[in-house]
Amino acid sequence: MTLRRSFAASVAALVAWIAFSVILAGAQGTQGPIAPKPGTTVEKPPENGIRVKVALVNAPVAVHDAKGELVLDLQKRDFHVFDNGLEQNIESFDLGGEPLSAVLVFETSSRIAPLLPAVQKSGIVFTQTVIGPSGDAAVLGYDDRVEHLLPFTADRDKIEKTITNLKAGNSGARLYDALSTAVDLLRDRPPSRRRVIILVAEAKDSGSEEKLGAILRDAQLSNIVIYSVGLSTTAAELRSPPVQSGPIQGTPPGTFGLPPVPGTAQTPTTEQQREGNIDVLALAVWVVQHATAVVKERPLEVATVATGGMYQSTFRDRSIETAVDAIGGELNAQYTLSYRPAGTDAAGFHQIKVTVDRPGVKVRTRPGYYIEGK
After folding, report:
1. Which is nearest to 251 in space by CA: 236, 266, 235?
2. CA distances from 52 to 49, 57, 345, 350 (A)
3. What is d(CA 112, CA 155) in angstroms, rounded to the nearest whole number?
4. Cα gap 94→241, rounded to integer Å
5. In whole angstroms, what is the distance from residue 246 CA to residue 100 CA?
6. What is the mean pLDDT of the chain?
7. CA 283, CA 228: separation in Å to the nearest integer?
8. Which run of H or of E encompasses 53?
9. pLDDT given at position 345
10. Which residue did the predictor score with more confidence, 37 or 149?
11. Per-residue CA distances from 368 to 150, 305, 311 (Å)
């Protein structure tokens, strides 16, 4: 009897132990919240524990020697890139080798109608020297509206035909809206492709809803480079019947296209004195920093300087093709330096500076980019 009682007690103890183990295991596996002990402080998860990496910044760089010739034999080790004064690690390096995606933007205003035949003849130069065998392009035209004339295609015959068939419209010139549309189109292109806008137009805008500074901010953040071929209003006027006397003003009477010089009154006389001596680089930085400001003077040059491109002025018909050819030549000889900004996370304008370990050369790149504050 004593032996039976001892065996029964052992079995009961074993069953109790198994039940306790099951309950304990279930408690440890519970997915719900665990109540803190009285008097203890609950530790909150760290704020901003996950940081989003800053996108890759591309700095297009053109290097010329003392004679103005492009320098093509530099290596990655020869370059130094600074972001807000801090040297950055160059993650990738390329010399004109990455495939190109370009948006070709043409003014079709009636004001440049006399120059349109010369623009139409430039189609083959665009496809041969700019787009090349591995590139693609879309085509936009604009007067008082922006028209999508051709979606992105690598078919050079279609690109040339679209340019050849450009037709003059009305007297409107929504330059900034056309640039904004081009930036939107390029933003969706693969990041492995160089993104370029080539603008053939007058240095005038009328009726646009978009502001130049905001467009250039977007272009900088999307690593888009703008090149421009300035159509000569004077050349067009020489080929057209006279419609008015006196100089054509870029802004309405009584208004000015530039911000005033600090500490001075803004008058027609002071503005005329400034016309011939404008620091386009400083103006480009100012426009990007003041994105909502209205600046109508020299927009083509401002857009190219702000993004690291090149502006080509034209007067005679033949120079339009020459200008496009020069742009294509630089695109094939352009260095692209890419880096991820480190040690400089502040919002606002980030200045980019590129130096080269070779004396006597001139280096051109975009002045920087702008990050919106939170």
Report:
1. 266
2. 10, 15, 11, 18
3. 27
4. 49
5. 43
6. 79
7. 17
8. none
9. 73
10. 149
11. 31, 10, 18
Q: pLDDT digits over 48-81, tens only?
A: 333 334 478 999 999 999 999 999 999 999 999 9
Query: According to the model, what pLDDT value does residue 112 have?
Result: 92
d(CA 120, CA 77): 43
The DSSP string of 158-220 is HHHHHHHT-----S-B-HHHHHHHHHHHHHTS-TTSEEEEEEEE-S--BS-SS-HHHHHHHHH
Angle at 139 between CA 165 and CA 196, to 5 degrees: 140
Residue 301: burial class (beta carbons within 10 Å; 0-12, 13-18, 19+): buried
Q: What are the structural domains of the chain?
A: 57-91+338-371 (no CATH), 98-235+278-332 (3.40.50.410)
* Alpha-carbon Rg for the chain in angstroms: 31
Per-residue model confidence as pLDDT tens digits over 97-152:
788 999 999 999 999 999 999 999 999 999 999 998 899 999 999 999 999 999 99
The pTM of the full predicted model, rounded to 2 decimals, is: 0.75
Torsion angle in degrees (nearest 10) through CA of 263, 270, 273, 277: 40
pLDDT at 73: 94
Q: How far is 34 from 21, CA to CA, in rounded Å?
A: 19
Positive or negative CA dihedral for 207, 293, 258, 283?
negative
Model confidence at 272: pLDDT above 70: no
**49 φ, ψ to 5°?**
-65, -30
Report the 10 Å Cβ neighbour count for 85. 9
Q: Is 350 helix (H, G, I), strand (E, B) or coil?
A: strand
